[in-house]
Amino acid sequence: MLVDLAGGWNPLVGRLAWSQIPYDNPILAPLFVAVVLGALMLLGLITYYGKWTYLWREWLTTVDHKKLGIMYIIIGLVMLFRGFIDGLMIRTQQAWAVGSQSSGVFGALHGYLTPFHFGQIYSAHGLIMILLAATPLLVGFMNIIVPIQIGARDMAYPYLNALGLWLTAAAGALIMISLFIGDFAHNGWFGYAPIFELQYSPGVGVDYWMWTLQLVALGTTLGGINILSTIIKMRAPGMTWGRLPIFVWASLSANVIALTSFPALQVALALVAADRYLGAHFFTAGLGGNLMLYTNLFWIWGHPEVYFVILPAFGMMSEIFPTFSEKPLFGYVTMVLASIAIAGVSWLVWLHHFFTMGAGPYVNSAFSVATMLVGIPTGVKVFNWAFTMYRGRLTFNAAMLWAIGALFLLLIGGLTGMMLAIPAINYMVHNSVFVVAHFHSMLMVIVYAIFASVIYWFPKVFGFKLDEFWAKTMFWLFSAGTALVFVPMYMLGFMGMTRRLDYVFNTAWQPYLLVMELGIVVYMFSVFAFFALLYVSIRDHAKNRVGADAWGTSRSLEWITHSPVPFYNFAVVPQINARDEAAWRRENGLEHIQPDHYDDIHMPNNTGVAIILGGLSFTLGFALTWRIWWLCLLSLIAIIALVIYRSFKGDPGYILTAAELEKMEQEAIRRASRIDGGHHLRPVRGDGWAQERADLPAAGTLYGLSSPMDHHK
Amino acid sequence: MQVKWRHSLKSGWRYIALAPILLLDGCAGNPYWIFNPKGLMADSDLFYLMVDVAVMGVIVGLTALLVVWFMWRYQKGKNRGAYDPSWSHSNAIEVVVWGIPIIAVGVLSWFAVKGTFEINPYNPTVITKHMKPDDDPVEVDVIATDWQWLFVYPQYHMAVANELVLPARTPVFFRLTSTAVTTTFFIPQLVGMIDVMPGMRTKNALESSHMGSYQGIASDYAGAGTSWMTFKTNILSATDYSQWVRKVQRSPVSMSYAGFNRYADPYINVHHKVVYFSSVQDGLFDHVIDEVMNGKTWPIPPMMTENMVGYLQQQDAEHRD
Ligand SMILES: [Cu+2]
After folding, report:
1. Domain contains A6
2. Nearest CA in chain A to B31
3. Are residues A576 and A472 located together in one domain of the fold?
4. Of the residues A211, A550, A675, B70, which has the maximum number of CB atoms within 10 A of its CB?
5. Looking at the complex, does the CB of residue B299 fall below 8 Å from at least one CB of chain A?
6. A710/B193 Cβ within 8 A
7. Is the CB of A186 less than 8 angstroms away from the CB of B186?
């Protein structure tokens, strides 16, 4: 061993020992039993209904970007729920452990969580919410929507896409297993030097944290490469840069950030690993280490990551506002410029996460001004959404409500963000719950945009709409929870309450903490409403089927193909004529046009390699965490061998013949005309699907559409 | 003139900020420490906070009203405003939507830079510009351990654990470091946060003319004992302060380099124990930084607070209480 380890180690099982299983923990032990029983039941049900082959063929080995996207979103939602439970536990501890007279149970002096457990819970909460909930949810949406919006049949690299998913799944599995075997890091989601060094975190928690981050970073980087290549190389004819849907622009700028910033995180974490495994001194306080180097490296990734998650959310809002305002997006060009500007500035502001480090006033001033510059394009975006509504015809359905909620949260988050950008103010609220309230406002923008998108794009992916009543009920409950949790949190920030306290010394803060506890209970009800939403919508799905244009006022390209989208997306690659292609076709009476003939198409084969690589990566992460060297070596060799094998084998793909395609298309068209009662969709075969229509009003001038005709007259 | 303007802006804002608080808990003190500064540094922080909130509040507030108005006016089926399905561009509006944020950011940048220099922890002009040559500033060396604060007064060769006592109307200059891990030094009503890092030295300063007792906090997570790593800051009059110094100097306890090594072992200060050290070996602050840079650490036992109650019993049994 290159480093001294506290506790035992043996060659066979590394640091693993029975004492690492928290069977005496009154919270984890029952949870473990429940999880095992639940898993057994699920496996039993799959076996009983004989669904293993279906699961393997249709989902686990798929390279279809929509199915991968759906699985990304499922992972994201499961982890969102786990992160929410962590949040509930944090809030309960802080509402309980107030003042020296408060009671304590389960070995805690106050409340029910010892400092060590409390630290693990908020660290897991942060890491999960940002990297295993928000990131997979957004990557999932980009995966599903971007190829359809640009008229592609799949991603540029379908196999790489599957690999990204299964690496993310491996990361999720690794952080989940830390609940039941060993412990998790207590050093916050971003980690501090030197508290994560072996002397101050002797357990395996930091190792779990580090390898989870590595896996998710690798998965997201691969995903970023894929989405960028897809956008650059796979656009349908006529899909010029000036016609790219705004969500695609947002995805493009977000993934430029991902591609350039995630590697910095991976390097930083590799250096942490060198410290903890090899006894190096990159980030130790002594012997030549520099602990602030870690903080710099982390936030060089960490701040761009913030924009990596917020830009797609902005893109989602930019799709939803026009649809339900029945108008093109106001200021398309400035919106694109604003996205690129945000991405550009995002690399230049990382130091605002540690103004209190003690850098000189010139450094702090420079980063302060750079940070405020982000406010300019963000402000422009808000105004553009407002002016999209101006002179519109607004429908306040559930998707629109969530999007408007996101807009108002952005206003609050922007106001408080501009406060934090000024060092003189930052010194007073940095590391206080004010900061926590600020970045939750911003992350809530993402959550709101995601739920808006779930409602908005659900019918495109599954062919039926979600139930409006439960979607709205969930919105109002969720918003009440948001207000009850975060308004008191802002107030506590001005009272001077600092973050991450597992014991609250000031009893004057208790009333506010109790209101926040009430808020988290209201959040819990919104989670129930979400389950009800899924149940009711699936039960009534036959009544809520939709045609290609699910909302009747949709604008971008994904709305001209069938709902649900067939696995080949477009039977014939469409010709793009305008920026808002679906709206343009509707306005020119082309919405019924179907392709006049079909050709053979080339599709990628499924592969089991990606999920096996995911499983091996999980094994590698677990073995590294527990320092089981033989298993590390074995899984690493297997990974390398499999990657080499797959590279030489490649995938020739397969041909879907024109005849098969035509049969499936006829079926889809018949289904669609039944839903619409033959009224909305009268399929006409002819020019206009894949041919340029020079006879019709020209395709979009620089600003917006050039055809002002009102088809509702 | 500028001072007067600042003053009225401050009191006006305070009045508004106080309104909801007065409704909540009558006149029982102001729990909003950030709005109730008692020192020059915190005062200056609040001024910039108000400027920023004033500028951004107007923009954000008007934008919110604009959105609500559009939502009301253009709701489908209400026919309140004319529908224009193709309107998506206006040069005039574009100029305004870029212009407003650019102007706001420009104005705030000016204040941001000004404020950064004014309360620069290493040379806060808000304090130094008022200093007279015969002013005798107090120096305090702050050493954070896991999880206590040691305040060394090199001018008096004495130290106090977990309590900071300072004279009113006197500039105070801090040098700060830490033994084991990083945390942050914060007295909400007196001075903003500054990181304390092992093997490094940061600086901060404060000056207050308000006698009283103010809460000090370790505001960055430093491990199991962080929540109990608090200290009271008492601002005393000149006479009370010299009496207090004499009291500390009468303490039977003293601290050597070796004694410090034992003192710096992990200790959760749940009883808010305050210790006076009548004498301290000279150069302790620099000695600690040197030791840490040469690789000294104060490791934490594995799972130390897996059972917090049990750990505290053990801590008491070791007579470190
Ligand atoms: Cu940032």
Report:
1. no
2. A495
3. no
4. A211
5. yes
6. no
7. no
Same domain for A577 and A518? no
From CA B280, how far away is CA B253, in angstroms rounded?
A: 9
Pair A535, A577 in one domain: no
In a domain, A632, yes or no: no
**Chain A with chain B: Cβ pairs closer than 8 A:** 354
Instruction: Give the C-alpha separation, B187 to A283, whole Å.
Output: 28
pLDDT of the residue at A139 = 96
- Provide the residue range defining the domain that includes A568: 557-603+653-693
Cβ of residue B253 closer than 8 Å to a chain A Cβ: no
For B119-139, how does the pLDDT look when each residue is reduced to its tens digit (9 = 90+)? 999 999 999 988 877 778 999
Q: Which of residues 199-218 of B touch A (CB under 8 A)?
A: 199-200, 202-203, 215, 217-218
Q: Are residues A533 and A563 in the same domain?
A: no
Burial A195-207 (b: 16+ CB within 10 A, else e): bbbbbbbbbbbbb
Q: In a mutagenesis test of the B interface, which of A196, A383, A707 is the best target, namely the one with the most B β-carbons within 10 Å?
A: A383
Shortest CA distance from A326: residue in chain B: B85
Chain B residues with CB under 8 Å of A183 CB are 303
Query: How far is the C-alpha of A163 from the C-alpha of A258, rounded, in Å?
Result: 17
Any bridge partners for residue A45, and if so which? Answer: none
Locus of tokens 């001194």: A281
Q: Which domains are seen in chain B, by residue range? A: 2-80+90-119 (no CATH), 133-318 (2.60.40.420)
Contact list in A for residue B86 (CB cut-off 8 A) is 327-328, 704-705, 707-708
State the Cα angle at A432 between A407 and B59, rounded to 5°.
Answer: 35
Instruction: Based on the fold, state whether residues A482 and A577 are members of the same structural domain.
Output: no
What span, in angstroms and rounded, lies between the C-alpha atoms of A601 and A441? Answer: 46
**What CATH number is associated with residue A176?**
1.20.210.10
Chain segment A428-463, per-residue pLDDT in tens: 999 999 999 999 999 999 999 999 999 999 999 999
Q: What are phi and psi of A432, to 5 degrees?
A: -105, 170
- Backbone dihedral angles phi then psi of residue B268, each to the nearest 5 degrees: -95, 115
Asked whether the beta carbons of B35 and B188 are under 8 A apart, the reply is: no
In tens, the pLDDT along A368-422 reads: 999 999 999 999 999 999 999 999 999 999 999 999 999 999 999 999 999 999 9
The pLDDT tens digits of the residues spanning A148-176 come to 999 999 999 999 999 999 999 999 999 99
Contact list in B for residue A205 (CB cut-off 8 A) is none
Sole residue written with tokens 């003319």 = B209
Residue B117 touches partner A, C-beta closer than 8 Å = yes
Helices (H), A577-657: 581-587, 609-626, 629-649
Identify whether residues A140 and A203 lie together within a single domain. Answer: yes
Domain count, chain A: 2
A700 within domain boundaries? no
Measured between alpha carbons, how far is A172 from A614 in angstroms, rounded to an integer?
Answer: 11
A525 interfacial to chain B (CB closer than 8 Å): no
ipTM of the prediction: 0.91
Tell me how close the Cα of B159 comes to any Cα of chain A, in angstroms: 24
Give the Cβ contact number of residue A9 at 10 Å. Answer: 16
Cβ proximity of A342 and A335 under 8 Å:
no
Closest by Cα among A101, A217, A107 to A170: A217
Instruction: Answer whether B181 sits within 8 Å of A386, measured CB to CB.
Output: no
In a domain, A11, yes or no: no
Q: What are residue B202's DSSP bridge partners? A: B176
Quick check: B221 and A7 CB within 8 A?
Answer: no
B109 to chain A, any CB pair closer than 8 A? The answer is yes
- Do A129 and A151 fall into the same domain? yes
What's the pLDDT tens digit per position in A322-347?
999 999 999 999 999 999 999 999 99
For residues A579 and A584, what is the distance between their CA atoms, to the nearest angstrom? Answer: 8
pLDDT digits (tens, 9 = 90+) for B79-121: 888 899 888 889 999 999 999 999 999 999 999 999 999 999 9
